[in-house]
Amino acid sequence: MKSFLFICLGLTFTTIVFANMMYDVPGAPGAPQVVDVRGDRCELKYLPPVYSGGSQVLNYIIECRNKGDYKWKVIGTSKSTCFVAFGMIEGNEVEFRVFAVNKFGKSDPSKSSGFILIKSKL
């Protein structure tokens, strides 16, 4: 009876250990914040995901869309939590979102930055 009890406890412990070592895609990063706009460039910062998925975040994918468009467009990637978007057109209103990527895949998108009017600083 003692042997049987030990085996059962061992299997329970093994199950608990493996259940805690699950790997997944990361959580969504924080919503991007526009920290500077100059001419055709826009500097963004965002927070890393709270949940990494059990693996290091390898990079971030940044998407943008113009007001009135429904389709998001990838405008670049970054290994850090900041990104400079080039090619912005003065007078356009754009919004940004970010994905985190680890070795298991891509996160859900961050919340949107909200629309930003691209204009030169005076």
Give the tally of β-strands: 8
CATH class (first level) name: Mainly Beta
Instruction: Give the rounded overall mean pLDDT.
Output: 86
Give the low-pLDDT segments.
Answer: 11-18
Radius of gyration, rounded? 21 Å
Structural class: alpha+beta
Query: Span from first to last CA?
Result: 83 Å
Q: Specify the biggest β-sheet.
A: 5 strands, antiparallel
Instruction: Supply the number of helical segments.
Output: 1
Domain tally: 1
Write the layout of secondary structure elements.
Elements: H1 2-20, E1 33-38, E2 41-45, E3 59-66, E4 73-78, E5 82-85, E6 93-102, E7 105-106, E8 116-117
Antiparallel strand pairs: 1-2, 2-5, 3-4, 3-6, 6-7, 6-8
Q: What would you note in describing this structure?
A:
The structure is a single chain. The protein is an alpha+beta fold and about 120 residues long. The chain has one domain (about 25-115): Sandwich (Immunoglobulin-like). Helix content is about 15%, strand content about 35%. The protein contains 1 helix and 8 strands; from the N terminus they run H-E-E-E-E-E-E-E-E. Strands 3, 4, 6, 7 and 8 form a 5-stranded antiparallel sheet that branches. A 3-stranded antiparallel sheet has the order 1-2-5, with no helix packed on it. The longest helix is centred in the first third of the chain and has 19 residues, at about 1-20. It is elongated. The chain starts with a helix and ends in a 5-residue tail after the last strand. Residues about 10-20 have low confidence and may be disordered.
